[in-house]
Amino acid sequence: xxxxxxxxxxxxxxxxxxxxxxxxxxxxxxxxxxxxxxxxxxxxxxxxxxxxxxxxxxxxxxxxxxxxxxxxxxxxxxxxxxxxxxxxxxxxxxxxxxxxxxxxxxxxxxxxxxxxxxxxxxxxxxxxxxxxxxxxxxxxxxxxxxxxxxxxxxxxxxxxxxxxxxxxxxxxxxxxxxxxxxxxxxxxxxxxxxxxxxxxxxxxxxxxxxxxxxxxxxxxxxxxxxxxxxxxxxxxxxxxxxxxxxxxxxxxxxxxxxxxxxxxxxxxxxxxxxxxxxxxxxxxxxxxxxxxxxxxxxxxxxxxxxxxxxx
Length: 311
Description:
Order of helices and strands: EEEHEHEEEHEHEEHHEEEHHH
Oligomer: single chain
Strand order of the largest sheet: 5-4-1-8-9-10-11-12-13
Shape: globular
Radius of gyration: 18 Å
Largest sheet: 9 strands, mixed
Strand content: 15-25%
Helix content: 25-40%
């Protein structure tokens, strides 16, 4: 079981506050810390902590953050021979504000992530033979995401795309190269052109994406659960009841849990349950990569609920 993650690697600069500020408002926060993040790196760590062999392809700067980010990936068990140290720019950062409710606001500055090009695709091509899946996001240039998806399709590797953040340009031309599209409700709404806030509207958005070329669409609906539409079936998996303290990396944990189950050969419905459980567990801890559940934690969580794990 090998998954290649092609995407962003950031240092998260996190502030905690009682509530999110309004536009032009200054409020006093209660805490500040730095923690490794980036949607690509988060998903790679999520997979590695679930005991999936994971290869990361991306870039960091040659600054202090870059060294810390590489060390964090290695500590989690992610293979980093596909990560390039770029001496021409700084590492990517994300400035994150987290409210006591668990809601968050994020501003990303791409840095080295914005410099990915054909040389990074070459590193990806070296890793695709024998890979079971390629996991993509949109915190790196869209042109290389397209090239990566096309390369994986030509290599017969399953492609999963988390379309975040939604870019200013259309991405429907990507869908024919995507086996599973993984938007959350906000992203699905932006991409579909109408609000997505329920299983019904999620199913409508999924049908549109399928008409545009996506095979399977899973819309993450936060505290409601996840709507999955395949070419043959549509089903809904409700969320687990849990007290959330930080939702920053819940979607990345979902992608990791889902992908881990799929490459282990589990049915899609069970894989969505794994993703939903991993996402729920990630909200119970502060931070991004540090919040990703390990394999034992996920298995215990599912076993207690009579789901997904055989004794």
